[in-house]
Design brief:
- This protein has 159 residues and is mainly α.
- The protein contains 3 helices and 3 strands.
- A hairpin with a 5-residue loop joins strand 1 and strand 2 (32-35).
- Helix 2 packs antiparallel against helix 3.
């Protein structure tokens, strides 16, 4: 029990709070230095002072008044239904275009992969060399497949 007391004291001393003020000092030559101790120079000014941190939670703020009809905050700008519908249609069109582009890019990447798989070079007697050569093409196909999946998911989330 007595052997634990020095260890406990060391832990308690180590855990004492530390404070540091931050100063910005500019010397005669115009060089700026940031430090935690105010030097004797005249060009030092305090930037920040550590303050004790409270572990007590603050009181909660009252919620902003909401417009009961739309469920939005009173100060939030509203968009009329026609404008929002036009924006939604534009977004769907853009996502459909991106999906079509990604599907074309996927087909090109698959064709490039198939072409590379059909090739055999004389210096690739070790199969690992073949795998290393094909890996960038496989990665490209996977990227396009993930992009298509993400675009489809985004399109399905539209209203």
């Amino acid at each position: 029990m007595l052997s634990r007391i020095p260890v406990l004291l060391a832990v308690l001393l180590y855990a004492l709070p530390v404070r540091a003020d931050i100063y910005k000092c500019v010397d005669e030559a115009g060089h700026t230095t940031y430090t935690n101790s105010k030097s004797s120079g005249k060009g030092c000014s305090m930037l920040a002072r550590d303050q004790a941190v409270s572990s007590v939670p603050s009181a909660s703020r009252p919620a902003a008044p909401q417009n009961s009809a739309s469920g939005t905050s009173a100060g939030f700008p509203r968009v009329d239904t026609g404008t929002q519908k036009a924006r939604d249609n534009d977004r769907r069109r853009i996502l459909d275009d991106e999906l079509a582009n990604e599907q074309r890019a996927l087909e090109v990447a698959r064709k490039e992969l198939a072409d590379q798989e059909a090739l055999r070079y004389g210096d690739e007697r070790n199969y690992q060399k073949v795998l290393d050569r094909l890996q960038p093409f496989k990665d490209k196909v996977q990227i396009h497949e993930r992009n298509i999946e993400a675009l489809r998911r985004e399109i399905s989330n539209l209203r």
